[in-house]
Design goal:
Chain lengths: 205, 205
DNA sequence: CGGAGTAACGAGCGATCGTTAAGTACCATG
DNA sequence: CATGGTACTTAACGATCGCTCGTTACTCCG
């Protein structure tokens, strides 16, 4: 998609920016075309219509996120804490470096027509399950002490997602530091207590 | 606003529902009028236009949230933990019982025209400051051990806000239980460690 | 040199958009 | 019983919407 004709890339870039800023429903294809520096009918050379463009952008954004998670998990070991770290890192990095994609992904589900909605929801559910399974296993292994695994999961996901709404690359906080903080916050949220050092006796009520 | 003519209340209710479901930009005033069971021009009897209606809905939603926070804080004592509890409880209750208002509040800032944006942002900033000041004081008092107060604050706010997107009243989880869990999660996020043995039993240790 | 395919363009279609103007039914008051 | 405000209505305006049409410029291949 990047090595394609320059017009195509410009259209996708412009559409992503407009959808992220104004929302799908408030964006006209003329807005997109103007931002991309092409005529409005150029859009119809590459896509069947506005909805088709949204679907393509959503698919691309979802693929990018999922493959990033997949890779992070592949490099992580068996330890649930390590896996949660990997997932949080992948998510935070994605939200911070691809803010437009993230914000569209997180807010334009409602703009999808019914025929595309099911697949989109199913894919998102797989992603949620990733978090859920890891946290559940951490709880079973006695590594995560949270009494509310489901709510801890939602909290971790919500706080990572919110990064896309406020973080500015190149600001005072580096991406690596950001990741470190959110990994730490996530482990705190699930109440991670490493097994090895036996000196901890305050836990387990 | 509730004791006004029935048409007015119906319009506001319909507009809230439509804005929350489809978004401001994707909602037409005809959609709103039809849902309210009035003609589209009835809207112009009460409001100057679509934007004016959004502003009224946003103002009402903001007032409801802020006054709820104010009341909760007034009933809380001086203890930062108690104050954070009060703020989280007020926020979670608001998000869970006024999902439409919440979701509009959380996503339609971008639909505000410049002249209304400044006041809206300023009011929201006051709300954020509430959380920030309480957490900062908790850290200074040595009650909150989090090394990242700003990020913990963002995490707490984000997880509370997300409630509006998934919680269903009347479901398996009661509102009181929901509040209890999120208060607990928030105290965990700021790494609350009570100085003296409080009678608290919902937090571990 | 002559198609074939690619990558667009400007003009315009019907539908829908936010908004306005002018009118109407219904009270309550004087 | 006339008058004035309240609470709407129907009809229509110009602008903009997503989308289609017919055309054009430019390559590459034989």
């Amino acid at each position: 998609m990047s090595t394609r004709p320059p017009g195509h890339a410009a259209i996708v870039r412009a559409a992503r920016a407009e959808f992220a800023e104004r929302g799908y429903g408030a964006t006209s294809i003329r807005d997109i075309a103007q931002r991309a520096g092409v005529s409005l009918s150029a859009l119809y050379y590459y896509y069947k219509g506005k909805q088709d463009l949204l679907v393509a952008i959503l698919d691309d954004a979802q693929d990018a996120y999922f493959s990033s998670c997949e890779q992070a998990l592949a490099e992580a070991g068996e330890d649930p804490a390590e896996q949660l770290e990997a997932l949080v890192e992948a998510t935070v990095r994605y939200r911070s470096t691809h803010a437009s994609k993230s914000n569209i992904l997180l807010s334009e589900e409602r703009s999808l027509e019914p025929e595309h909605l099911e697949r989109y929801r199913a894919d998102n559910a797989r992603s949620t399950r990733r978090f859920r399974d890891i946290i559940e296993r951490g709880v079973q292994d006695g590594l995560f002490l949270t009494p509310y695994p489901d709510d801890a999961r939602r909290a971790v996901i919500a706080m990572c997602n919110a990064v896309a709404q406020w973080y500015e690359p190149g600001g005072a906080l580096s991406e690596d530091d950001l990741v470190e903080r959110y990994v730490s916050l996530a482990l705190t949220a699930v109440e991670y207590r490493p097994r090895a050092p036996r000196r901890a006796s305050r836990t387990q009520a």
